[in-house]
Each structure stands twice: as structure tokens, then as C-alpha cells.
Amino acid sequence: MPVAEHSVWIRIGRIMKKLSLVPNLCTGCRECQLMCSLKHAGRFNPAEARIRIEYDVEMNCYSPVICRQCDEPACADACPSEAFSRDDRSGSLVIDAEKCSLCLQCVDACPYGAIRVAPDGTVLKCDLCGGDPECVKFCSKRPEMSSPLMANPEGATALILIENGTPAPAQG
Q: Cα(67)–Cα(160) distance, rounded to whole angstroms?
């Protein structure tokens, strides 16, 4: 039984993109975590990634865990420092490290477990890379699988970026 798919909308000016996650297509390679940490921390360290790959024993599959960019975010409501805001460019929910008091109430409030604490104690969550998510570019293909969202003869991926109704070409 496949894990539920979910999507996040990204706004870049007047262009809308849709980041779809199809968890049962995840290979568990964690390349997305490595590339995320490289983009944000300048080094390969999954503990510093804004995306996390978990194995769901019940469903017998790997699954990407990222911020779902909720319209009414419980994490932002729980933040006493008002450190959360929407990025004007992408529409993603971001944390202002200067305002964050590291109380971790946002970590507890997130219903998806998508906010985490880095080894240095800072709070991390997906910011959609400003509208060009690095994880999508390096998501491994499953040649034996297909996705209703993406007709690709090379195989389907767990992370799909769709722009203007058609999949955006993978880069990288």
C-alpha cells in the first residue's frame, strides 16, 4: 500500500511550481539529504539537511520528510519569537535565525515532524531553496516504477517539480 502523496506549491514571481512527493518511489539513497546539506551548509552532512529520509516499517518503504509549507502553520503559531515569515520570492515559510530563541516549540508543534535541530543547535526546515529545490535535481530514479504525475521512460522519482502543468526538466 503506497504512502500518501503530497504537494507543495512554490511561487516564483508569476510562475507557480508544484513540488510533489511520492514517498513509495523513494529509493532511500539519501542523495537529496547530501545535496541539501551541501547547498545550505556547504558540506555533505545529512544532519544539516532540511530534508530527511525515513523508513516506514509499516508501509515497507522509504519516505522523504520535508516541510509542507502549511497555509496555517502550527509551527509559526507556536513560535513565541515570531521568527517565522513567508519568503516574498517563493512563498515558502522561513525561519529568521536572528529572531529564533531556540525554544524548540516549533519542532514540537509541527504535525509532520519536518522541523529538526542541527548538531549546532539551530532549527532547520525546508525553505524550498528559494524556489529551486536542490533535492529534486538529484532524486534517484526508480526504473521499475512509474508515476501518474510523470511519464518518464527512465523511471519515476520520489520528488517531482512540475512547472505550468508539465514536469520541469531535471538538472544536475
A: 15
